[in-house]
Target: PQQ-dependent sugar dehydrogenase
Amino acid sequence: MSVPPYSPARRVRGFLAASCTALLLAATGCSLGEPEPDPAGRPPNLPTPSASAAGGGQEVVATVLARGLRVPWGIAFLPDGGALVTERDSGRIVQVGPESSPDGLRITEVQTVDDVVASGEGGLLGIAASPEFAQDRTVFVYYTAERDNRIARMRLGEKPTPILTGIPKAGVHNGGGLAFGPDGRLYASTGDAGDTDQSQDAEELGGKILRITTEGKPAPGNPFPNSPVWSLGHRNVQGIAWAGDRMYAVEFGQNTWDEINQVAKGKNYGWPEVEGRGGDKEFVDPIVQWSTDEASCSGLAASERLLATACLRGQRLWLVELTDTGTVLGQPQALLTEKYGRLRAIAAAPDGSFWVGTSNHDGRGRPTPEDDRLLRLVFAGGGAGRS
Model:
């Protein structure tokens, strides 16, 4: 691992033309409710959705925001209401919105990260905007380079400066999640790169969740001395999110169970000794597990007491409602099943909605002429999340 030196680096005003589509689905148990007004901008001018309720229960409106993307992987919202989106294979960063066009939100290419070497599941992966973006115009990216996966910081339009290198790479299991936690530290999720010994070795960066400063140094308070490792025993973590001050991560299993874990400092999540719930006190059991054919989830987002994870092989969105203590309330709900194909990226927008990206151009899907798409989900009614 090498750590190069530090290098310096709302709202949507008009969403869609009439050509954008919306889908009204029925789901039970969870809801986000209508978004609160944003003091920094006007409410979005959404199209009238086409409603097709399948029965009673709560409702969700899915609206297509953008079309023609290629394997969108990470989403980072900006103060003006637009979002930066990474494309895994092209190495591009594009901005979606806040301006609209006849086809939806305007897609503007920001730049291509030239050091990206895309192959298999590797490429330009996670992205996180600096908490001080309005002042420093800085973002952080996680990407696959020639010899490793790495995290870099950059001012938009400028060459990235790597701040943490040496994360193992392979054709699979590259991790790639990147997000700032409530503590202001930068968290990254890594995969074992096909080497299961990485996950249980606290001195290796593979199969971990990392916690670092914006200079790439181990953050103060980490559980292992002079180490960026926050938790270990992971196989391939991608999505990470916080519900309040509790951290959660979604993880790909091997052949049996995919998981959502509540992540805590220094804890061990069992891979490769355990897949799913193992009952071993040495390891932390997941709060939810699914069979791989109905999950294989990549992205994770949270809004108050609601977790949402976007699934590739399962071609659906799972909603998990949480109790006040962070455990699961009731049964997870499946939405959008096989409606849009493979789902990967997901992020909670400032207005309380979720933005979700399809991944039908990743070599394992069946893309339509509109793919890949970016969707906006709003949940109606009372319950978890915004109401």
